[in-house]
Amino acid sequence: MLRYIGQRFLQFFLIIFIANSLTFLLPRVIPGDPIQEALQVKAAAAGTQNVDIQAWVKSYNQKFGLDQPLWKQYINYWNDLIHLNLGYSLYDYPATVASKILAAIPWTLGFMSVAIIFAFIVGSALGALLAWPNSPRFMQGLVPLLMVISAIPFYLFGLALIWVFAVQWGILPSGGGYDPILILRWDWKTAANILRHAILPALALVLFGVGSWALSMRATLVTVLGEDYITFAQAKGLPDRNVFMRYGVRNALLPQVTGLAIAFGLILGSGVIIESIFNYPGIGNLIFAAISEKDYFVINGTVAIMVLCASTALLIVDLIYPLIDPRIRYGK
Amino acid sequence: MAAVKRGLFRNTKLNPSLIFGAAILIFIVAVSFVGPVVVNQKMARVGAVDPNLAPTAQNVFGSDSQGRDVFTTLILAVPPTLRVGLIAGLISVFLGLSLGLVAGFFGGWADWLIRTFSDVLMAIPSIAFMILVVARMDRPNIVVVSVVVGFLTWSGTARGIRSMVLTIRERSYTAVARANGETELEVLFREVMPNLLPLMLASFIGAVTMGIATVMALEVLGLGNNVIPTLGMMIFWSQRFSAVLRGMWWWWGPPIVVIALIFIGLFFVSFGLDRYLNPAIPINRARARARRAIQPGSTATSISRGAVLEVKNLKVIYETAAGVVKAVDDVSFALRPGERMGLIGESGSGKTTMATAMMRLSRPPAYIVGGQVLLDGRDLLQISDRDVNRIRLKDIALMPQAAMNSLNPVMRIGPQITDAILFHMGRMSKQKLDDMVGQALTKVGLKPAIARRFPHQLSGGMKQRAAMAIATILHPKVIIADEPTSALDVVVQQQVMSTMGRLQEELGAAVVLIGHDMGLITQFSDTIGVLYAGKLVERGSVQDVLANPYHPYTRLLIDSLPSLDGKHALVSIPGLPPELLNLPSGCTFHPRCPLAFERCRSEAPAVQEMQGGRQVACHLYPEHTELPSMHIKLDGVEATEVPYA
Amino acid sequence: MANLLEMKNVTKIFGGSVIGHDDSTVAVDNVTLSILDDHPTIIAIAGESGSGKTTLSLLMQGQIAPTSGQVYYRGKNLVKMSADEKMQLRREVQPIFQDPYAAYNPFYRVDHVLQTPIKHFGLAKTNAEANQRIIEAMEMVGLRPAETLGRYPHQLSGGQRQRLMVARALLCHPQMIMADEPVSMVDASLRATILASLSRLKQDFAISVVYITHDLTTAYQIAENIIIMYSGSVVETGTVDQVIRNPKHPYTQLLVASIPLPDKSKNWGGREAEDSSQVARKAGGCKFANRCPLVMEQCWSSKPPLYTTDENRAVSCFHYNNNPVMSSPDVSTVFR
Q1: Chain A residues with CB inside 8 Å of C21's CB?
Q2: Is A307 in contact with B128 (CB distance < 8 Å)?
């Protein structure tokens, strides 16, 4: 058991090491100077075309230690990372990347986690119903529909949802995290406003999520229901419903829960496009803005956080799985 | 036996998902070839037409805010999008296949390295990494981007290939190939690779999907090439000019439809392929769920005198893709209280089908289509589901082959016993419940503490004993034991059967022991029934049948058993075992029967009562009073005797 | 008399000790035996699952290397063979497997397994000669080429598939056949033909057969000599008439008594305890001590050597310590 835990941690650190080394290296091996590009964008935005870009670049390079040898930069990079110092925004200097990410993260976590949990519960329940031999026949007609939903990239739903709810019917806002004129306070009005803005992006995710959770639940459950222990449970006289819940759904939920944990691990990355489409003030929009501003340090920091989040989730899955599946706990 | 089933129930038809998906993809690919030739490509340039035109009859999709004709742009956007998927897919599958093959086939440190690296890749969100790479490119080259996507997504393919190679390596045909003189490389390319084709195709489709989705996501985020129109760029442009909010549905709508079609096509193709790779998922559940009406043949539920259980004219069929198989055909027998009946049959005889049918547990593709199972004046096949649940375990219990998977792997043994008690006996105190479980376990030779263990912590013999504890806990009148010890070693088998014999005597239950081992059946049982191709061909007391079998099949079966009394010529039954899909006419045994005559070929023999309460289904009777001696034809080809040392 | 195959003090240990955690299993424990070149014989190696019988056969074929000890084929150490010698070994020691379905690649027709050895070992000059050889081999095992060739594996019965495997092995002109449970997955009524073709390999072609099995009745019928293994060690060895008809080791006695024979007059049932009463005592001596009904104090501390109890039998049990210890560790010296 200790060996198992040790292996998982080793793998975790290996992932972190490789991923962050890549994050460090990639921008440096691709030709071009990110600082110069970013400053050009900034200068163009400010309308100050005549500024001496080269001098500006040089002072920035000095400021960020980019004029030092590569190995020293690499050590500095790890040193900063360990202290969770992700550097400064090039575009909004002297705003730090960490402060930008911290401001954006609650938005993403808020609407994404609600969407994920909701989709998981509804989808798994739906999948279980689809696999239940006694469920009404028309439910089988849902299967192709769910397949279609889970096949289409979900951000496309976002566009369709804006079109229907915001443009045609005008009942929900088309984007943003809250009304621009609203002053954020800890009150019901703010909460209701934020909620109204979160509905459409969350709905796009939920639609897609329900489809894929339902399909995976159905597939696992159908396999489980074919196992010998189901037949034996029925032979004990247990009513179908009882066998289905205690022996079928319960066993089929194990892989679903793993999937849920992984979905949470990818929570920061998977909403990127939907946030940018809805102009939602989360991580996705942060990275979307950083791309157009060529704010490379922000991109870099955000990606690092995403990798950290995903690999931590994987580690947690590996560590909790023995608790929910006794076969691994007592296996060798 | 598994081998026979694999061959028999293999689904060879193209499934509808695959056809549907492939049809969509073929259409899209055709458009990508024909479209660019047909349309006027200049119409897709910026400023080629007036901007923001709503669709008209002449111009079906109107134009965008930069003066491109939307229809032309859409047609031209399809090929580059598909090309992205193709490049990413090919690279990903090539890498995944070669690395997966190396990892699975050579193992060792290469395997470790590849596995660790793919774990790392899988843990890194590929979209995040692509953003990192592409954000640094000034004008992203679509080919380069798809190559990078290919490099980032091989790990799934590699894992799939690796585990499949490991499965194939366990199959002895790779060892046979080595014994045939093939080198490792030949084994890899001639034996392993061909069997990976379906998986490779599925992986390719998966990688194509992944590639298109990733590049499209990048484009929607603004990390695309502004010059080449692709489906993703069309979405990005329409977003940048707020096409949705401005009500320009003709701009963003059509690309969405085309994108959706591509992904739906890919999804259904991969779903269809998955059906071949994982055939556990029922092919046609809608049809499978339809319950069959059972023709009881008779409405009388009175049981034969002195019988505890009576099976009358039981018929079970399998509906397979290749046709309907009669697995159990018109089987009748009665069981006295406390009788130990052995039901012997070889593969394809329908013995396990019988066991599940007698409990009314047949599952698609098996259907009970006729007959009665009478217990206590009730027909088990006609009463309601609720009533049958109350009877199961309490009056008639199944003892499965527990060494397989009959116990829920994620539940402790205790709850798997108590849930049955609670259902049948209602609520009771925890103390009383624990006592019952403890007693039941002690009776089968296990310690009460076993209740807190999980099934995989028990040995095969212990699992079998646990299953026995469950089956006997409510003192049933009838126990159906389906090959209970066939996976156990001979010493443990003897011990488990001894325990079962003692329990049977204590409970006074009647037992139907189903199996293929004549020795085990005769040692345990008082009476024996012989199944051949779904029919009960002979029945009588064990002593009588062994000493003086009536049916030629029974005789040959007994003669084929090796004994320890002395070395003698062993006999094989000539000919081939029956093909259930294509049963011989008349008596199903006639092609292999040394005593077959004209009537056997045309007319199926009915079951006849013989002396001493015995039964046989054979045309030799009643003309004969006992089985004539047989001479197995030694035609020089069919070797039938072992010339012993 | 030259040895065709020789095993000297062979031990195979699977797994290994990782710091503070020993998960190794001794699959084969110090076995010495030899198979003679000019005296074809059928040797049965019998035991329960986990007794090491399959590992022993893999060691004999050079499929796995011993942890200690040596395996020689025609006097050459298997682990030191050149590529050519390995190829010769491969051709001359032919395996037959348990599952006659898994032995066929589902991608090919069954002809594939017959044509491959001819091609690789250069057994025929022309196609006609190759076909002739295939037909001869098939007829030897009692198969009609017309109803077998050109089919896919699932179109044949289990018995046909396994006999075809024997034909395949025969095609290679082997010196020795390693048959690992060749009939355990075949219906009882079809076993005899397979066993018959194995017997004919010895009688008509002077090929030695190693018959690995858990089933003592078939071993008794086709083999001359038998080795009973328990937990990697040889517990009893000798002729089948001695060992199976009149077993001396308590384990062999238990094995033979547990065989369910189709004869009601044979006493079979009775012993039912085992599972809950496992003696937890660590056996440093005889491996069977914790299951042995006749266990003595010394069995726990020291390992019994093989005692030559009869002319054609040796038993590894202290109950027979009034007999001489085997002069040579080679268990096959008691064979007839």
Answers
A1: 3
A2: yes
Chain B contact for A176 (CB, 8 A cutoff): no
Q: What is the ipTM of this complex?
A: 0.89
When divided into structural domains, chain B yields a total of 2
CB contact under 8 A, C187 and B461: no
Return residues 145-164 of A near B (CB < 8 Å): 147-148, 150-153, 155-156, 159-160, 162-163
Where b means 16+ CB within 10 Å and e means fewer, C4-42 reads: bbbbbebbbbeeeeeeeeeeeebbbbbbbbbbbbeebbb
What are the CA-CA distances from residue B500 to residues B449, B464, B509 (Å)?
21, 10, 11
Q: Which residue of B has its CA nearest to A250?
A: B410
In a domain, B420, yes or no: yes
CA-based nearest residue in chain C for residue B191: C105
Which residues, in sequence order, are bridge partners of residue C307? C315, C325
Examine the fold and report which residue of B257, B277, B297 is the final residue of a domain before the chain moves on: B277
Nearest residue, CB atoms, B180 vs list C116, C143, C222: C116
Q: Whole-model pTM?
A: 0.85
**Other residues' Cβ atoms within 10 Å of the Cβ of residue B597:** 10
CATH classification of the domain holding B342: 3.40.50.300
Cα-based distances in Å from C325 to A28, B384, C321 = 76, 71, 8
Flag if B136 and A314 touch (Cβ within 8 Å): no
Nearest 5°: phi and psi at B608?
-115, 145
Name which of A38-47, A246-255, B220-229, B582-591 the model is least confident about: A38-47
Mean pLDDT of B589-603: 92
Instruction: Report pLDDT for C275.
Output: 47
DSSP secondary structure code for residue C325 in this structure: B
| Helix, strand, or coil (residue C56) | helix
Q: C212 forms bridges with which residues in the sheet?
A: C45, C180
Are residues B372 and B329 part of one domain?
yes
Residue B135 and residue A291: Cβ atoms within 8 Å? Answer: yes
What is the pLDDT averaged over residues B50-71? 83
Q: Chain B contacts of A204, Cβ < 8 Å?
A: none
Residue at B422 is within a domain: yes
Tell whether B160 and B90 lie within a shared domain: yes
Contacts of C97 (CB under 8 A, 6+ apart): B172, B175, B176, C103, C165, C180, C182
Q: In the listed set B228, B255, B277, which residue is the last one of a domain according to the structure?
A: B277
- Contact between C330 and C33 (Cβ < 8 Å): yes
C169 band by pLDDT with thresholds 50, 70 and 90: very high
pLDDT band at C236, cuts 50/70/90?
A: very high
Query: Are B456 and A163 in contact (CB < 8 Å)?
Result: no
The 10s digit of each residue's pLDDT in A269-285 is: 788 888 888 888 888 88
User: Is the same domain home to B242 and B370?
Assistant: no
Residues 273-332 in A contacting C (C-alpha not used; CB under 8 Å): 332
DSSP per-residue letters across C21-32:
EE--EEEEEEEE
Residue at B114: amino acid letter: I
Chain C partners within 8 Å of B556 (Cβ): 189
Is B151 in the A-facing interface, judged by CB distances under 8 Å?
no
A 9-68 residues inside an 8 A Cβ radius of B:
11, 14-15, 18-19, 22-23, 26-27, 30, 32, 34, 37
Q: Are B269 and B384 part of one and the same domain? A: no
Question: A3 at the C interface (CB within 8 A)?
Answer: yes
Q: Are residues B260 and B314 in the same domain?
A: no
Q: Which has more pLDDT, B267 or A266?
A: B267
Domains of chain A: 16-82 (no CATH), 99-324 (1.10.3720.10)
Which domain range does residue B130 map to?
Answer: 19-29+65-277
Confidence of residue C285 (pLDDT cuts 50, 70, 90): confident
* Residue in chain C lying closest to B541 (CA): C264
Cβ–Cβ below 8 Å for A30 and B129: no
